[in-house]
Structure formats: structure tokens, C-alpha cells
Specification:
By secondary structure, this protein is of the alpha+beta class. The protein contains 3 helices and 6 strands, in the order βββαββαβα. The chain is globular and about 45 Å long.
């Protein structure tokens, strides 16, 4: 098992001098196998990564009570996913045909892509008022990932 060693930081000022709810957060991951994220992705998104090499991930975000915005960079290659059904009887089933079409026609299997274009996620996530602060952070990172992979 690979140990993930994220580098992260953030500022969450909550005093009378600063705008209420303003925050910033940034982080990075070094090279690793993309499949290391399956323990997080499978329960959250009903998908798993079947292959991929992550060269680096970095993000620099700002936020307030209304939303989060910033840049998400995701350098990877040989990226393939498996879409899964919801949990039924304690198991998830692979959606094989849908996964094939998504891998073939929708997602970029690398960043930069086959045409040499590097995709940067330009996150502009509007916060759902009922979501916790941490769920809003996750949703903004998810938006950045989706933009980088072409979804």
C-alpha cells in the first residue's frame, strides 16, 4: 500500500477584520498510482479507477459562505475508470458498456491530452447552503478533477 503524503495548508480567518466566511486552501500530491484514490472515490461517486499514473496534483482555492473558486492542476496518464452500480447486497457491479464508452469517447486518458493540450480546472463552485464547509471543499475539488479529465 502506498502512503499518500499530501502537502496542504489553509487560512480560515473568522474575526471582525475579515469578510465573514472567507477562507483559502491549497494542497499538492506527488507521483502515485491513481488507484490509491479508490477507497475515497468508490463510496462517494460509484466509480473506481482501473488504471492511471498520477504525476502530480495541485490546487489553490479561495472561498467564502457563497462558494469556492481557484485553479486545480492534475497531471496524469493511462487513466481509465469503471463506473459502478449503487450498493446492492453489499456489492457494486461494473457498468461495462457505459465504462467503455466513457473511457473511449468522454474522458481524457492523459493530461496533457493526445493533442498536447494541458487542461487546468478553473473551479467556480457555488455552495449549497445545506452542505458543510468540508463537503463544499470536496465538491469544489471534484469540479476541478472533472474539468481536467474532460467530464
Amino acid at each position: 500500500m502506498t502512503t499518500l503524503e499530501p502537502k496542504s495548508g489553509g487560512q480560515y480567518p473568522r474575526n471582525g477584520v475579515n469578510i465573514p466566511g472567507i477562507c483559502s486552501y491549497k494542497g499538492s500530491f506527488a507521483a502515485m498510482r491513481a488507484t490509491e484514490f479508490n477507497q475515497i472515490l468508490t463510496p462517494l461517486l460509484n466509480m473506481k479507477i482501473s488504471s492511471g499514473n498520477i504525476r502530480s496534483i495541485s490546487f489553490d482555492m479561495k472561498g467564502n459562505d457563497s462558494g469556492n473558486w481557484g485553479d486545480f492542476r492534475f497531471d496524469y496518464d493511462d487513466f481509465k475508470i469503471e463506473l459502478l452500480s449503487g450498493l446492492s447486497g453489499g456489492k457494486r457491479k461494473k457498468k461495462g458498456i457505459v465504462s467503455f464508452f466513457v473511457n473511449t469517447f468522454v474522458i481524457n486518458d492523459s493530461n496533457p491530452d493526445a493533442n498536447g493540450i494541458y487542461h487546468v480546472g478553473k473551479v467556480n463552485y457555488k455552495r449549497v447552503p445545506e452542505y458543510s464547509h468540508f463537503k463544499s471543499i470536496w465538491k469544489s475539488l471534484q469540479e476541478g478533477i472533472q474539468q481536467c479529465v474532460g467530464m
